[in-house]
Specification:
Blueprint lengths: L1 E9 L2 E7 L4 E5 L6 H11 L15 E8 L2 E8 L4 E5 L2 E3 L1 H11 E4 L10 H12 L2 H33 L1 H13 L6 H13 L1 H16 L5 H6 L8 H27 L4 H21 L4 H67 L6 E3 L2 E8 L2 E5 L2 E3 L7 E2 H4 L2 H16 L6 E5 L7 H14 L4 E5 L3 H4 L4 E9 L4 E7 L2 H13 L5 H13 L1
Parallel strand pairs: 3-15, 3-16, 8-14, 14-15
Antiparallel strand pairs: 1-2, 1-4, 4-5, 5-6, 6-7, 9-12, 10-11, 12-13, 16-17
Helix pairs in contact: 3-11, 4-11, 5-11, 6-10, 7-9, 10-11, 11-13, 13-14, 16-17
């Protein structure tokens, strides 16, 4: 339950601290006193959208902290629009904060009455009463598997269609690269060979000059070194000279061998040039910077060709996967539908009984559950709450036949029904009594008191019959300071409650009759 609320620098609140009790509490105050401000602050700490305009003028940030039995949650909102969320002083994401808050408290605002027409909410009512939480989780998980399988099949089919449209072009490009006989490093080898062939005469001349210098018949370097003999005093130098002569001899022999293989070969030169032109043409055509990139493209095209051949097989596998997931999903969806239909009579009976208790003597409720055309995120059921308030009136959608007061009463009955099966610790009703008064309001308060036997109920109300039945009474009011107007809240004692309820009955200056009436209402409590 909500134990304490701290608000700092939020709208008209500089600082507010208030303790809350278990059971049934009421909150009253004049229109504009600031009840909606307190409720807005509470909604903010529970994860509602932050607006920096909510920060009190002249302040850098506002802080809202709510203490529950389960822990403390805090939201800090800064003037730059940023906010931070905490659970027990540990930073959490806004999603984590909302997930926790949804298990702690339910704020039923005036606009929430519109939920009675919402299809998702109507399904949630059935699932709450049927206690389908585990089934809904299983369905949601399996629905994810099924949709993923369907998407995988669709992607394969789209790829297959596109591949077939491009098949000839892909095959043509692959064939062109495959027939080219590409080899890594080939261009570098061709360029080296081309240089050798196109400069053969120059290379031959250079080699011949080197050979003549090293081992020619006239004044060769090798013969000169061979003739050079030193005495034993320079034996180390002699060894080096002999080593140099051997090395030069080896160089001369290698030059001879190279010279023998250097030939003028115009045909080979032409072949090399044609091959280089062919490769350069392919690189230009395919937008590749080198042969290695061409080879990569060829291999990728080969994979595409291979995939085209396997699409039919892969699609068949994907279809089988869809059917498998669909079969499992149908099984869970059927169980979910059966569970929902089973609780419909109980829900209708309970709602009709409570609505009659609230003055709608001929209330009639039906909840048809019909199949949807396809799977949805919440199952295969379409639910529509139908209502009639008068005798012999045809059942129709709530918004078409119910008044504002009847919708408020019906929504309270629905909330009471949900609360009886869902272990939500705290529920706040913000003027759920709209459109009702007198004995009907007293009956609504009685229902809220019954709900409060097992949870904390806080009702924000303008109706004295409801305010009188609260075990605890909080009053929201405005007070002027030297510089500004502030919203405050206080817990009322017995005399203060009498005065507040009398004021609600007759105005700011309650009569003795109103005071006596207020005492009488409190005695009933």
């Amino acid at each position: 339950m909500l134990k304490h609320l701290h608000i700092q620098n939020y709208a008209l609140i500089s600082r507010l601290d208030i303790d809350f009790e278990d059971g049934f509490s009421v909150m009253t105050g004049e229109t504009g006193a600031g009840k909606s401000i307190i409720l807005g602050a509470l909604a903010l700490v529970l994860g509602a959208r932050a607006d920096s305009k909510s920060i009190t003028d002249g302040e850098d940030k506002c802080i809202i902290e709510a203490e529950f039995d389960e822990g403390i949650i805090r939201r800090e909102l800064y003037a730059n629009g940023k906010s931070r969320s905490f659970v027990d002083d540990s930073v959490v994401t806004l999603q984590e904060l909302k997930a926790l808050a949804n298990r702690l408290i339910d704020i039923h605002s005036q606009h929430a009455n519109l939920l009675i027409e919402n299809a998702d909410f109507q399904l949630e009512v059935l699932d709450a009463i049927a206690q389908n939480e585990a089934l809904r989780t299983d369905y949601s998980t399996q629905f994810g598997h099924y949709t993923a399988a369907v998407e995988a099949l669709q992607q394969l089919q789209e790829l297959s269609k596109k591949s077939r449209q491009d098949a000839d072009y892909i095959q043509y490009r692959y064939q062109m690269l495959e027939e080219a006989g590409l080899e890594a490093g080939e261009m570098a080898d061709l360029e080296a060979e081309h240089y050798q062939l196109s400069h053969a005469e120059d290379i031959r001349c250079a080699l011949q000059q080197a050979i003549d210098a090293l081992s020619g018949e006239q004044g060769s370097a090798i013969e000169a070194i061979r003739a050079c003999r030193l005495d034993e005093a320079a034996a180390d130098l002699q060894e080096r000279i002999d080593s140099a002569r051997i090395e030069l001899q080896d160089i001369a022999e290698e030059a001879e061998r190279k010279l023998q293989h250097i030939e003028m070969d115009p045909r080979r030169l032409q072949c090399v040039e044609e091959r280089m032109d062919n490769l350069n043409g392919l690189m230009h055509k395919f937008g590749a910077k080198d042969i290695e990139e061409l080879i990569s493209m060829r291999d990728e095209l080969a994979e595409q060709v291979k995939r085209m051949d396997s699409f039919d097989f892969d699609i068949e596998l994907a279809k089988k996967a869809v059917e498998t997931e669909k079969t499992s999903l149908i099984k869970i969806a059927d169980a979910l539908s059966k569970s929902r239909r089973a609780v419909v009579p109980k829900i209708c009976e309970r709602l009709e009984t409570d609505m009659k208790r609230l003055g709608v003597a001929h209330a009639k409720v039906e909840i048809p559950v019909s199949p949807t055309p396809d799977f949805t995120a919440s199952g295969c059921d379409e639910v529509k709450i139908l209502f009639a308030a008068n005798k012999n009136q045809s059942l129709r959608a709530v918004s078409e036949v119910a008044s504002g007061g009847e919708i408020s009463r019906l929504m309270l009955c629905v909330k009471s029904l949900i609360a009886s099966t869902k272990g939500l610790p705290t529920i706040i009703f913000d003027e759920i009594d709209t459109g009702v008064s007198g004995d009907i309001a007293s009956q609504m308060a009685e229902i809220m008191r019954e709900m409060a036997a097992h949870r904390q109920i806080i009702a924000i109300t303008h109706i004295p019959q409801i305010a009188a039945q609260g075990a605890h009474h909080y009053k929201v009011y405005k007070a002027d300071t030297a510089t500004r107007t502030e919203t405050n809240i206080q817990v009322l004692d017995e005399q203060q409650r009498i005065h507040e309820i009398a004021t609600m009955l007759s105005g700011n200056k309650p009569t003795q009759e109103a005071i006596a009436n207020a005492k009488q209402l409190l005695c009933y409590h």
